[in-house]
């Protein structure tokens, strides 16, 4: 068997850590239902999440499980207010980060499926994913990602199925709000 490079091992470790965080969130929800007093005590423990905002700054955010859960709930309600419904699909084109986790879990909380892909994927691949997932919403890492994928989606007519766009990092230039009939919002707008 071949040896894995350091970056592959690091990526695997990050993916494993993110999966553990997702599973802990699910476990906390179940614990709240079955043993609420233990859940309240456990919610005070802190977790650390990498805020991979695409700038390589390595910013780490520390949240309690309760704070993470609350942020996921707020994002879920924000998605619902934008028209996302159970059974619909949402595309998330972003690298892993705390906000990516909140967006993914917020969508899952209201019954949406997520079509996920990193931002280094070719624009044609992202467009293909958006079309075939029949996404109702588009969540992107930053405005640069939106600038890359949106023209292809417009050219292919995929923008017509999109009801909203959320930019996770760095805000949105006022000229982008809205993109035709599609509202373009920031992460903070949604929560």
Which descriptor suits the 3D outline?
Answer: globular
For the residues shown, what is the average pLDDT? 79
How much β-strand is present in the residues?
Answer: 15-25%
Number of continuous helical runs? 7
Q: What is the tally of beta strands?
A: 7
Indicate the topology:
Layout: H1 6-34, H2 36-42, E1 46-50, E2 60-64, H3 65-81, E3 89-93, H4 98-109, E4 113-117, H5 123-133, E5 135-140, H6 143-155, E6 164-167, E7 184-186, H7 187-190
Parallel strand pairs: 3-4, 3-5, 5-6, 6-7
Antiparallel strand pairs: 1-2
Helix pairs in contact: 1-2, 3-4, 5-6
Any overview of this molecule?
This protein has 191 residues and is an alpha/beta fold. The protein is built from seven helices and seven strands, in the order ααββαβαβαβαββα. A five-stranded parallel β-sheet has the order 4-3-5-6-7. β5 (135-140), α6 and β6 form a beta-alpha-beta unit. α1 (6-34) packs antiparallel against α2. The chain is globular. 30% of the residues are buried. The model has no long low-confidence stretch (mean pLDDT 79).
What's the short version?
By secondary structure, this protein is of the alpha/beta class. It has helices spanning 6-34, 36-42, 65-81, 98-109, 123-133, 143-155, 187-190; strands at 46-50, 60-64, 89-93, 113-117, 135-140, 164-167, 184-186. The model has no long low-confidence stretch (mean pLDDT 79).
Task: Summarize this structure as a short list of keywords or feature phrases.
two-stranded antiparallel sheet, 191 residues, single chain, 5-stranded parallel β-sheet, 17% strand, 7 helices, alpha/beta
